[in-house]
User: Fold this.
Amino acid sequence: MFNLIVKVSTEEDAFLESVRAAMEEYFGDDQRRIDHALQVSLYARELLSYIDADPVQTLAAAYLHDIGIPEAERVHGSSAGNFQEIEGPPVAAEILAKLNTEDVLASSIVKIVGNHHTSGAIDSTEFRIIWDADALVNFAPVLPGKSEAQIESVLQGHMVTEAGYRMARNIFLKDTESHKQCLTGHRPAILP
Assistant:
């Protein structure tokens, strides 16, 4: 299913591995959060094979996008998205500082972490990839069992990249005729 060809240098790959390891260490024994971040990173990597974006920024943001959940639960008693967006940036910034991340890269990753539940908050390709990758994971437990029309409505209302929309249709509809309609233009225009 996954086309995992995304070109990064050996140094960039080592950095991404460090970010992944730091995320896993931060979440500790919360395997559900770790698995979610890893799944989002897999979808983000797949989307990067179709969408031109900075792979290091995108994949680091994929690993760290939910890093604010433990603090949100501790401080606010909730893991709601708005609390994640408040508590996540300081945690992500601290992790990235410990990894000696270049300021511009760290800033862009932290910005995605701090807005990943707010549609259209950031107009960057990397943000749109994280938005769709997170949705692909989050939709898995809620879309099965819904009608094709309900699924289509959710996908049309939420997905922001053409590649993400097509992946979602492949995953959740598995209807080749509907997929052909998508490819022939029976789909509202969405961002790359």
Remarks:
- Residues 176-192 have pLDDT under 50 and may be disordered.
- Residues 10-27 form the longest helix (18 residues).
